[in-house]
Amino acid sequence: MNQLLDTPIEFLKGVGPQRAALLQTELGIFTFNDLLQHYPFRYLDRSTYHKIKDLPYVDNYVQIKGVIQSIKEIGTGRGKKMFARFSDETGSIDLVWFQGFQWIKPNLKLNTEYQVFGRAKIYGSSWNIPHPELTLLSEITNKSGLQAFYNSTEKLNAKGLHSKGIEKLVGTLLPQLQGKLSENLPDWMIQEQHLFSREKALFAIHLPDSEQIASKARFRLKFEELFFLQLEMLLRKESTGKKLKGYVFNEVGNQFTEFYEKHLPFPLTNAQKRVIKEIRKDFLTGKHMNRLLQGDVGSGKTLVALLTMLIGIGNGFQAAIMAPTEILANQHFIAIKDFLSKMNINVGLLTGSTKKKERAIIHEQLLNGEMDILVGTHALLEDVVQFKNLGIVVIDEQHRFGVAQRAKMWRKNVNPPHVLIMTATPIPRTLAMTFYGDLDVSVIDELPPGRKPISTIHKFESYRVRLFGFMKEQIALGRQIYVVYPLIKESESLDFNNLMDGYEAISRSFPKPQYQVSIVHGQMRPEDKDFEMQRFIKGETHIMVATTVIEVGVNVPNASVMVIESAERFGLSQLHQLRGRVGRGAEKSYCILMTGDKISKESMKRMETMVHSNDGFEISEVDLQLRGPGDLMGTQQSGVLDLKISNLARDGQIVTLAREAAKKLLEEDPNLTLPANQSLKEAIRTILKKKPNWGRIA
Ligand code: ADP
Ligand code: MG
Questions:
Q1: Rounded to an integer, what distance in angstroms lies between the CA atom of residue 197 and that of residue 195?
Q2: Which residues, given as ranges, of the chain have pLDDT below 50?
Q3: Is ligand 1 within 6 A of the CB of residue 266?
Q4: How far is CA 315 from the centre of its chain?
Q5: What are the chain's domains?
Q6: How many C-beta atoms lie closer than 10 Å to residue 479's C-beta?
Q7: Which residues contact 455 (CB under 8 A, 6 or more apart)?
Q8: pLDDT value at position 399?
Q9: Is the whole-model pTM more than 0.70?
Q10: Which ligand is nearest the CA of 449, by number?
Q11: Candidates 423, 555, 556, 587: which one to mutate for ligand 1, based on the most atoms within 8 Å of Cβ?
């Protein structure tokens, strides 16, 4: 039966080599199975016909049944039209063509029953239907129910493969598959979820008798698709856990204990404690840890990372923490040095701008084991960076690193070092279950005490004068302010001018020596960037004008105002990240979103979401709805998914059901040995064979 489904589409009656080539390039349809999975995107109820005498008023889609009585052409040259007089038992109407009728005319049959579909219009005093869809009644495949509409393209249209043409191909295919579409889910699951059988669903999705049946068919196919995805994730997780040995960290060690008892600057939040416990457990299992730590901006992930690394050190290993930008790596380095200032732990920093001499020293200390913690950027990935005994790697702001890059860190010791991935962009549950189904997930769902919520407002250009006034008030209170501009690659020079104009306007309104203004952007030399950043961190400047280089991680607790210019050009998660730069101290903080007067509906939705929510998880849910999962996770991962019918943004509930079903299955039959699960085992085997082993490192 697999063989039949794998038949090249060329061999379906009515296709042939030319159309096959087009179906491949235009719609990715190579085989019978691909056509079977080219699901309709909507249906039209074709079970009822209008009577011509009762046609509804003007410009409505109508469907009538009858015969053509006569055909005539009227006019000359470009004004030429063709009229066909069409009648049912109640009256007559004109079908009209303004072009293309030289091809249509020869095919029209008089006194033969047609179904006519189109928009009825009143022209002068008589009814007509321009450019109707005509189908011989004898050729209609699904007389009782809904007619399916299929996606097509212009090139396919030109070869007769418009929606109707595709419908016809499907109509040719389905009878050949009757009785041959075997079930791939076990009976108990079908009962439990009240699913159509696979064959019934595949037939009904193309030829449903009613909207209700179409919807049940959709549910079955979505469930099946998501179930196999979840099962795949769980199986990969299983096999990763089994295959990969990890270093055992038996104790928390002296360094952890000393730090925890003597130098911890504040008590941990309960969420931080819980996460440390979860990590501790992983370290005892002898398996490789692959854990994702989600926590909103400002939730205190750095401290968790440090405590995790101290455990590694206490067990005789080295640790590394990798950040996506130099500024952020610097900041981690400073924060960690600061936390550890009273302890004898050697911390190094390695970035693209580390001098050659220093680099040589670091390389040596890594190799001879003198270096305990290495902080850095991508520079850590280079092959020349060799450790004596690397035991734990922390990766901050995970999704900025590619999958292949992360894999490199795995090879820096005999067994792969444990990995803790930290992200401040909370991932909606449905996505996390799907993309990170093979990772263990920890969540910090609590901010350190004493944080005041950030007031967010959305303003237009007319607010500018008052904005500057407000900024002055805040500076008078001793606060510092960020002003952020978008700098997006495609329009770089334009954006750059905006940034510079903005900087000048601010410098004029906030003159020296009373006010000090810093600027940081991507085109500056790293040392200049750093110098300006440090001035702001030390409180020497009042305003930091910047591009999104400050997006992640920067920590200046005295900064209490975040102004985001052209806020409509930022995505939701980016806005939330930027806002997370303030509200870190004890002072009341503000985020002001400045936008153009005319912004799209979607941009407005983003602004509204920011104004009413401070919750990263809620924001990421909205982000998912607005942008779809592909954008959210990066194209690389979305391509792997290749979902035919489900939509992760909309089908969250089915994802959960599928996840539960997959879990239950594996709990009862972890190796899929029960006879009842054999069809399923075969199906998942085929799926796994086709896909690259990306789950291991994703
Ligand atoms: P993020 O999770 O965004 O990386 P950070 O680790 O930068 O957050 O922490 C934000 C701020 O909160 C830092 O100044 C940090 O020192 C402080 N912090 C972390 N944990 C606690 C805690 N338990 N109590 C009080 N402040 C904390
Ligand atoms: Mg951070």
A1: 6
A2: 1, 632-640, 693-698
A3: yes
A4: 38
A5: 47-141 (2.40.50.140), 254-285+299-423 (3.40.50.300), 455-613 (3.40.50.300)
A6: 20
A7: 588, 589, 590, 591
A8: 55
A9: no
A10: 1
A11: 555
